[in-house]
Amino acid sequence: MHENQLLIDRISEYWNERIHDLEIVTHPVGTAGFFNDLAAYRFDKLNYLQRVVDFTAFKGMKVLEIGCGAGIDAVLFAENGADYTGIDLSRTAIDLAKKNFSLRKLKGTFRVMNGEALEYRNELFDVVYVHGVLQYTADAGKMAAESLRVLKKGGQLIAMVYNRNGWLNIMSRFFKVGLEHEDAPVLDKYTIAEFKEMLSGFSRVTIVPERFPVKSRLHGGLKGFLFNTVFVGLFNLIPRGLVRKSGWHLMAFAVK
Ligand SMILES: C[S@@+](CC[C@H](N)C(=O)[O-])C[C@H]1O[C@@H](n2cnc3c(N)ncnc32)[C@H](O)[C@@H]1O
Q1: What's the CATH number where 194 sits?
Q2: Which of 38, 84, 90, 102 could cross-link to 15 by cystine, CB 3.0-4.6 Å?
Q3: Are 254 and 161 contacting, i.e. CB atoms less than 8 angstroms apart?
Q4: 3-state helix, strand, coil in the chain (%, to 5)
Q5: Ligand 1 close to Cβ of residue 205 (< 6 A)
Q6: Exposure string (b/e) for 119-132, b if CB count within 10 Å is 16 or more?
């Protein structure tokens, strides 16, 4: 079997067995409380997301999300009237995303699919959204090329990868604290220049570094205490302009 397909199979297996952010959930998997826990945690940790992505701007547009996970951001698209399709390699993720939508009585299409080989025709979607997925796939360049192919001319890709020069990567190495999903078959980080290169097929690309420290619910002990009480406060006193390039999430807004 082809090397890429073997790696895709391992990635699929890994994400079939794990649910992103499950550690913070207090309600049984698949219940309304479970999805609310995930959303509350996500939008606290990613407090920038709804500021830089206007989820109300896609009413009536065809939106494809690659790697939709449990469908947390998907809800924001669908609630605001987008014609939403979510795909993921993981059957577990797709089943959860479907459940999330049915509990909220939202309409959307979900399929288990490889984002590196999309089963959609050219120029079908207005928006492709890929948040926290390119860094976990076998060949991110292939996924970026597939996103470009299925976008209409003038359509937009909104994507996020981890910043190799981001504060969290630097801290994780310095304090020897592992990153989440460091055991995944693939976990890549990119510089701004590498991310721009990956998206060089697009006519216009803007990269915005985001995701600065917020208090962690995951780490305890002395390291967790110092992080929450000293580091987060001190870091956020520094004017953003000076630390902007060290944002952990590189958000790309790219036009076909
Ligand atoms: C860290 S989770 C992020 C999920 C969601 N986007 C979020 O931000 O909460 C990564 C997701 O990417 C999916 N994924 C990885 N490679 C993929 C691929 N080639 N095609 C589709 N989904 C993929 C995984 O199955 C997993 O659900």
Answers
A1: 3.40.50.150
A2: 90
A3: no
A4: 45, 20, 35
A5: no
A6: ebeeebbbbbbbbb
pLDDT of 213: 84
Q: Which residue has the tokens 């060949």?
A: 139
| Ligand 1 atom closest to 114 (CA) | 20
Looking at the structure of the chain, the number of domains it has is 1
Cα–Cα–Cα angle for 59, 61, 63, rounded to 5 degrees = 110
Is 157:64 a contact under the CB 8 Å cutoff?
A: no
Cα gap 137→63, rounded to integer Å: 20
Q: Measuring CA to CA, which residue among 61, 252, 52 is closest to residue 155?
A: 61
Q: Could you tell me the distance, in angstroms and rounded to a whole number, from the CA of residue 194 to the centre of ligand 1? A: 20
For residue 208, what is the DSSP state? E
Helix or strand or coil: residue 101?
helix
Tell me the C-alpha distance between 124 and 216, whole Å: 40
The pTM of this model reads 0.95
* Ligand 1 pocket, residue 132 CB under 6 Å: yes
pLDDT at 56: 98
CA–CA distance, 67 with 123 (Å, rounded to integer): 19
**What is the model's pLDDT at position 171?**
84
pLDDT tens profile 16-67 = 999 888 888 999 999 999 999 999 999 999 999 999 999 999 999 999 999 9
Give the 3-state DSSP-derived string for 173-196, with helices as H, strands as E and coil as C: HHHCCCCCCCCCCCCCCECHHHHH
Is 118 a pocket residue for ligand 1 (Cβ < 6 Å)?
no
- Residue 1, pLDDT > 70, answer no
